[in-house]
From TrEMBL:
<keyword id="KW-0689">Ribosomal protein</keyword>
<dbReference type="Pfam" id="PF17777">
    <property type="entry name" value="RL10P_insert"/>
</dbReference>
<feature type="region of interest" description="Disordered">
    <location>
        <begin position="281"/>
        <end position="312"/>
    </location>
</feature>
<dbReference type="InterPro" id="IPR043141">
    <property type="entry name" value="Ribosomal_uL10-like_sf"/>
</dbReference>
<comment type="similarity">
    <text>Belongs to the universal ribosomal protein uL10 family.</text>
</comment>
<dbReference type="Pfam" id="PF00428">
    <property type="entry name" value="Ribosomal_60s"/>
</dbReference>
<protein>
    <recommendedName>
        <fullName>60S acidic ribosomal protein P0</fullName>
    </recommendedName>
</protein>
<feature type="compositionally biased region" description="Basic and acidic residues">
    <location>
        <begin position="290"/>
        <end position="299"/>
    </location>
</feature>
<dbReference type="GO" id="GO:0005840">
    <property type="term" value="C:ribosome"/>
</dbReference>
<dbReference type="InterPro" id="IPR040637">
    <property type="entry name" value="Ribosomal_uL10-like_insert"/>
</dbReference>
<dbReference type="Pfam" id="PF00466">
    <property type="entry name" value="Ribosomal_L10"/>
</dbReference>
<dbReference type="InterPro" id="IPR030670">
    <property type="entry name" value="uL10_eukaryotes"/>
</dbReference>
<dbReference type="InterPro" id="IPR050323">
    <property type="entry name" value="Ribosomal_protein_uL10"/>
</dbReference>
<comment type="function">
    <text>Ribosomal protein P0 is the functional equivalent of E.coli protein L10.</text>
</comment>
<dbReference type="InterPro" id="IPR043164">
    <property type="entry name" value="Ribosomal_uL10-like_insert_sf"/>
</dbReference>
<keyword id="KW-0687">Ribonucleoprotein</keyword>
<dbReference type="InterPro" id="IPR001790">
    <property type="entry name" value="Ribosomal_uL10"/>
</dbReference>
Amino acid sequence: MPGASKIAQKEAYHEKVCKLLDTYDKAFIVGADNVGSMQFQQIRRALRPDAIILMGKNTMMKRSIKMYCETSGNDKWKVILDHLVNNVGIIFTNGDLNDVKEEINKYKVGAPARVNLIAPCDVHVPAGSTGMDPSQTSFFQALGIATKITKGTIEMVSDVQLVKQGERVGASQATLLSKLGIKPFKYGLEIQQVFENNTLYDPAVLDITDDDMLKSVSAAISNVAALSLATDYPTLASIPHSVINGYKNVLGLSLATDYTFPKAQKVKDMLANPEAFAAAAPAAAAPAPEEPKKEAAKEESEEEDMGFSLFD
């Protein structure tokens, strides 16, 4: 049987969770792997008072959320239960999700590549001097990296992708990165899911801008218009195109017959006397006379008539 202190701790934790669920409407589910205690304190301090981080055993978080849903009749938080696996926490907020996300991403620290670690990103090593003496060329040879000796140090001939995302870091790769002083990975709280309006969605949705939305809507309207025109089915998207196409047909009919109207008459006049319109176009676009030439002519006239002779 658990001791009285443990029972009291569980009850206090449950009350804390219930209070958070009552207070906040939005949340992030975040992964906390490789996050140090000092780094965690900095993140907590930076997020207050707009957001609160809840950590704990997954079983305790699930138990409290389930009990809250049963007792309060509010089932909206149930959708996050299946995502409380591995080393995760919940960040509750009522503020702007993008602002909180930016604040979370500020607190990522560099970390060395450890042996057998799954690389979270590609690792590239740039060409150039490594600062290592020639006796350490074996590290580069083991990885098949072309090098040369320049001024007593090893120099990499070209850029190299040392580790690919999703692969395990090998011993030679980890040693070489350590000797080069490269910390290729950054760790912090990783946002896995976003909870808002009783639903969960991928954090990539927060990166969608108004311009992205406008492009998607424009593309959809273009597709609807093309389909409507191809099937002769009028829609709001296709009507402007239908009107323009109709006008083209009327204009073509007018040009082929004696029937005319103001817009068509202008085109007929242009076709009947193209030289006049060709001459009018350059005249309208002709540049104004250059001022410097006027000023030069004025200076010359002033020099010619200065009011006296050199022999006076």
